[in-house]
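Need tokens for this chain, all 194 residues.
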Amino acid sequence: MNKTIFSTIGAAFLASLCCIGPLAALFLGSTSIGIFAFFEPFRPFFGVFTIVFLVFAYSKIFSRDRRDCCNTDASKKTLRMQKHILLGITPIVFILLAFPYFLGNSDHEVSQTRTGVKSEWVINGMTCEGCAAGMEGYLSATSGMNSCKVNYNEGTMLCYAENNKLTKEKIRELVTRNGFTAILQSENSNIIKG
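Here are the structure tokens for all 194 residues:
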């Protein structure tokens, strides 16, 4: 039974790795968040495997319950514990499966100040909101970046950077280091103040 539970959790984690990975990499200080885009095409398969494992685990536990109804107290206690574990992991599994969709509506406003050199970019290679959120967090934490907003749905990025600290070439390099490509659309070299 434990193998089925671990398989279920593992498949659910793999189904959401393309979106959880960039955020985890950002949290751990890594700069290669784009590598997790590799897992995005496999998300539906891992999602199906997760549901199959979960249905199998439930059917195994509840069919076993009818068979073992008259056994010893120890087997009843073990069965009850396995039911509690399965019921406990089920919400976790569904949260992992739905994680990419939780990020889908994260279109928040840029909270930092909008001062500095404004540049607008087209970003290629993002596969979900996790990519956008990870890159936005990474670039926002970069010295010289006053604000950065990455929009996955439009495939764009809007930056306000200090020209003497963060040039457009450096911004492009930071995006490339994260596994994506950046194409400069426009730049306003005049300093824009809040």
